[in-house]
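FAQ

Q: What does a record look like?
A: Structure on top, sequence underneath. For example:
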């Protein structure tokens, strides 16, 4: 599914989605109309649930354009898609602040036309101080607009656990061999292993990589499967009666699992949980910067943001998120930062998930 290009046509919408489409259309109906324009195609690179077909259809009708949405399931795939020179490239990308910082350093993003995103004034105060958000500003310019965020906690099966797990070490516990799910991503994988050893997750010394790789081989042997997309993790969790999962998509996965009828809990372990703040950004390759800014503004409309939170269980930047009923996260939140050597992490990760033996690291 990762990287699959979606055809977003009205024929694909289910009845509930059509109702939501009507609500969304009504919610933004009061906004001033846009002049007719020549047919344009806006190419969007995003995560699951960030650009649902019915939401896209509202924007397409309003602006008389077409969107091509490509969905990614990991930062590694996102980087590869953006780096590809085949085809016309993407106009917009949704990425966490660590990835935004990397893209800014590589001069792959255009400065954000903040004046063209009036709905930004509706955001919570902490998201309006754009220059103070690490990773999205450089040399007095802002390159991305905050959209959604979550910590990457641990999901556990309440039936199989007498009490909630409180440590990352539960992922390595031999009692749960074959009943663990982990995310298929090199950066987060090594950061998780570093936190397990009490190390800084984003600045790993070269000498530490070999023992951490061996730790991840041990984790691989405990893992039933590595997943990429949140829907995939729900199906794996249910089919294999999984006990514990590192939730890369955080509260989005928690909601999906509970919606599927699974009795699961959610905690932030004592070592802490990585956390991401995803933003919308316009690429340097875009020839539709003004239209891209319209999309960002549309996604910050209150009706659209609330519908996103209702569907995905993820916080938006306009309203404080509701507390997780019955769950008590206990550890610190560790916001993502750029890592020391993403290429090395990716190469080692491919060897780990491909089955390389620990003594080879």
């Amino acid at each position: 599914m990762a990287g699959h290009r979606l055809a977003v046509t009205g024929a694909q919408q289910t009845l509930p989605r059509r109702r939501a489409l009507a609500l969304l259309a009504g919610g933004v109906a009061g906004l001033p109309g846009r002049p007719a324009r020549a047919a344009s195609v806006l190419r969007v690179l995003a995560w699951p649930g960030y650009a649902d077909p019915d939401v896209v259809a509202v924007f397409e009708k309003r602006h008389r354009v077409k969107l091509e949405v490509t969905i990614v399931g990991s930062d590694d795939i996102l980087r590869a898609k953006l780096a590809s020179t085949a085809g016309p490239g993407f106009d917009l990308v949704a990425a966490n602040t660590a990835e935004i910082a990397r893209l800014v350093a590589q001069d792959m993003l255009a400065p954000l036309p903040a004046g063209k995103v009036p709905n930004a004034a509706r955001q919570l105060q902490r998201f309006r101080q754009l220059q103070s958000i690490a990773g999205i500003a450089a040399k007095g310019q802002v390159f991305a607009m905050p959209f959604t965020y979550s910590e990457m906690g641990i999901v556990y099966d309440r039936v199989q656990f007498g009490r909630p797990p409180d440590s990352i070490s539960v992922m390595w516990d031999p009692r749960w061999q074959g009943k663990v799910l982990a995310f298929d991503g090199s950066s987060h994988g090594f950061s998780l292993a570093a936190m397990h050893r009490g190390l800084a997750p984003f600045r790993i010394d070269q000498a530490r990589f070999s023992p951490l790789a061996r730790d991840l081989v041990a984790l691989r042997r405990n893992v039933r499967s590595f997943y990429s997309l949140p829907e995939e993790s729900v199906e794996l969790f249910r089919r294999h009666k999984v006990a514990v999962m590192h939730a890369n998509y955080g509260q989005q996965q928690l909601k999906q699992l509970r919606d599927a009828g699974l009795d699961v809990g959610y905690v932030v372990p004592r070592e802490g949980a990585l956390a991401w703040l995803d933003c919308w950004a316009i690429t340097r390759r875009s020839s539709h910067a003004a239209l891209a800014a319209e999309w960002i503004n549309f996604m910050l409309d209150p009706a659209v943001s609330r519908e996103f939170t209702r569907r995905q269980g993820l916080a938006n930047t306009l309203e404080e998120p509701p507390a997780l009923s019955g769950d008590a996260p206990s550890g610190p939140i560790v916001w993502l930062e750029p890592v020391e050597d993403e290429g090395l992490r990716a190469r080692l990760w491919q060897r780990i998930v491909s089955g390389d033996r620990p003594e080879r690291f």
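Q: Is there anything notable about this one?
A: The CA atoms of residues 157 and 264 lie 5 Å apart.
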